[in-house]
Write a structure and sequence with these properties.
The complex is a heterodimer of chains A (360) and B (71). Chain A is an alpha/beta fold and 360 residues long. Chain A is built from nine helices and 17 strands. Chain B has one domain: Orthogonal Bundle (Non-ribosomal Peptide Synthetase Peptidyl Carrier Protein, Chain A), CATH 1.10.1200. Chain B is built from four helices and no strands. The longest helix of chain B is centred in the middle third of the chain and has 15 residues, at 34-48. The chains are: A alpha/beta (360), B mainly alpha (71).
């Protein structure tokens, strides 16, 4: 038993990302935070983000992303026998959003569907789960995910209000015995579970205090808002993530020159630079999207791939993926992906109105 | 690493003038903000292989407090 290994005979058939068409720039926060806005932008690299409308959910965004895979024949609807939906902002407390998507996609009942509650590490974990399902009988897995982080962040918390963006993705994964194997390593340190937390809204802290209150200068939030201990999370990231990347590369005999791109979870620009420095990757091989989309948690790696390749390019690319954050949870995976199958990013205002209470 | 070298690292980090920091220098008189917290975490991790916690960072009041963990 090991949390690292090699996934063989699997291939990414198509990757698609959708973001809300509502773009919010940092200027919007000038009244609330004043000169703190510029300071924040300098440290995190965030300049603007896409923010979901009141009724738009993560599954709405993933739905649009997946429908584009069906429309472009990168995924065949009738062949999907599993849907995984990775999110921390589901449509409902229950049922799983994967079941809602199963209905919206119009799939038959011979289909596995379940949600996974992970954030920034979720794309790498999702690929692992999808590949594992393919080893146990499935033929085609549709891995979806997304988050509307803007709905769980206080707009009066200067440390977080401008950091997160919303987004959703879908990736079609199938079998191919001739494909390159995917080395991976997945890790967890649950002792840090309080470092990134929304303490109320589920079943531990009921009913929770929904009144926003001050936790220091420029930080006003309620128990239903996201809390992040920035220094602790940063400390964890710069010590654990580079060593996990370096360890995978050493174990599998991979050098920096072998990799086309190191695609990191877009936590913040300062973090990305530190990881690049520690792993000796030049920044030109570490693509950045946090400037235009913010931190989109589980979507940040697929979003960065789609932004980078944009449905074009010259074919197979060797990418090292690393996701890290809430849990604390982190993972690294070495993947080959066809750049032409990473579709351009879609902007959407689509909402599944049939899912609202008014239409119950 | 000598005490002088440690102080030099902190002077660089705070973008302070050479020989301007003393162990009694209060952090309130410097740019002791969230960016400095992250820079200090990197400095301590890179040079001393230690993981600083937010609790430790909050407890620092003077340059001397930081020097005490730089070993």
């Amino acid at each position: 038993m090991s949390s690292s290994g090699l996934l063989q005979g699997v291939v990414i058939d198509g990757l698609s990302v959708a973001v809300p068409d509502n773009v919010v720039t940092n200027d919007y926060y000038m009244t609330e935070f004043g000169e703190g806005v510029e300071k924040f932008a300098k440290m995190t690299g965030v300049e603007r983000r896409c923010i979901a409308s009141h009724d738009q959910t993560a599954s709405d965004l993933a739905y649009i992303a997946a429908e584009r895979l069906f429309a472009t024949s990168l995924c065949r609807r009738e062949e999907v026998d599993a849907i995984i939906f990775v999110t921390q902002t589901p449509d409902y407390v229950l049922p799983a959003s994967a079941c809602v998507l199963h209905s919206r996609f119009g799939l038959n009942t011979n289909c596995i569907a379940f949600d996974v509650n992970l954030g920034c590490s979720g794309f790498v974990y999702g690929l692992y789960l999808a590949a594992s399902l393919l080893k146990t009988g499935c033929e085609h897995v549709l891995l979806c995910g997304g988050d509307t982080n803007s709905k769980i962040v206080s707009t009066k918390d200067k440390s977080l209000a401008m950091l997160f963006g919303d987004g959703g993705f879908a990736v079609s994964i199938g079998k191919d015995d001739s494909s390159f194997p995917w080395p991976y390593s997945l890790e967890t340190n649950g002792t840090g579970y309080k470092s990134i937390i929304v303490p109320s809204g589920a079943y531990r802290n009921r009913p929770g205090n929904s009144e926003a209150r001050s936790f220091g200068e420029g930080i006003i939030r309620s128990d239903f808002d996201l809390y992040m201990n920035g220094p602790d999370v940063f400390s964890f990231t710069i010590s654990e993530v580079p060593s996990s990347i370096k360890s995978l590369m050493f174990t599998r005999g991979i050098s920096v020159q072998d990799i086309d791109y190191l695609v990191l979870h877009q936590a913040n620009l300062f973090v990305l630079k530190q990881i690049a420095k520690a792993t000796k990757f030049p920044m030109c091989n570490v693509p950045i999207t946090i400037d235009r989309f913010g931190n989109t948690s589980v979507t940040s790696i697929p979003l960065t791939l789609c932004d980078l390749f944009d449905g074009k390019g010259d074919g197979m690319k060797h990418v090292l993926l690393s996701g890290f954050g809430v849990g604390l949870s982190w993972g690294v995976m070495d993947v080959h992906i066809d750049s032409r199958k990473c579709l351009p990013i879609e902007y959407t205002n689509d909402v599944y109105t049939k899912g609202t209470l008014e239409n119950a | 690493m000598t005490e002088k070298e440690k102080v030099y690292l902190l002077e660089e980090m705070f973008e302070a003038d050479p020989d301007s920091l003393r162990s009694t220098t209060g952090l309130d008189s410097l740019n002791w903000d969230s960016m400095a917290f992250l820079s200090l975490i990197v400095l301590v991790n890179d040079n001393f292989g230690k993981k600083l916690t937010s609790q430790q960072i909050r407890s620092f009041k003077t340059i001397g407090d930081i020097l005490a963990i730089m070993e």
